[in-house]
Amino acid sequence: MAPVALFILAVLAHLVVLHSAGYPEEHCQVHFCSSSVGNISFPFKSTEDPRECGVFTVNCSDPERPKIQLKEGGYLHEFQGSLFSPSISINDRDLADRLEKDRCDDGVLDDLSLPSASPILEVPLFTHNLTLFKCNKNSYLQRNYGCRNVNHTYYTASFSSSLPNPLPPGCATIQVPMRPFHPNKFSSLTAEFNLSTPECFQCIESKGECRVEEGEFKCAKGPGTGNLVAKFAIGAVAGLIILIVIACCLRRKLSSYRLLFFWKKQNQNRQITS
Predict the structure, then answer these.
(1) Using CA atoms, how far apart are residues 136 and 232, in angstroms rounded to an integer?
(2) What digits encode the pLDDT tens for the residues 93-134?
(3) Coiled-coil region(s) at which residues (predicted)?
């Protein structure tokens, strides 16, 4: 019985490891930001949280001007409204001032660029985007000329034109927000745009948990469902081990009683014989 108990104990330890590895949110805390923003929880995380606690970092050091990081290690955009709403309004005053001073600065355009495709975050249709081709100053692209600085030349793509595939060497594309109903040029760039998390918002509205697993959006119905299953399995195995240990102890005691009874019987037989 002892080898069986050791085997089950090994299974229990394995389950504990899987439980801690599969549900990193166990050590992730919910942080209150402000009355307008609400709580910070997955897919958002605070600046103090580990990386696995969320996809987008929110800085609430100044509750009056909360900021969100749309790209890992990127610029922190000032935003308005609740995180868990159909639309998040980006209205960055600092970036707007920088954009007004120099619309062709690499740093400004990099900070203004929208995040790449995400399983959670979306750019609503009513937010108009402008595709820019950022090319080394020695590269040339047959597109509308935008502007030039000491390092790069920027070209714009019209709404009707297809993107060149592959891009010429030394060129890359970025998406930047622009004012709606404006000409397709640099003067229409803006630091005010909207983002949304529709699937995550609907998931939370239906009392589910918003998650990203293997790069895909998942809505876990019922808070902590996976944790409850894992805890139940661990508890069941632990209870089984306790029963096996008790059974082993009882068996040993029963064997001791049988041996004592046999010894007394043998002793009585010897006394009668003598």
Answers:
(1) 59
(2) 999 999 999 999 999 999 999 887 676 777 664 557 888 899
(3) none
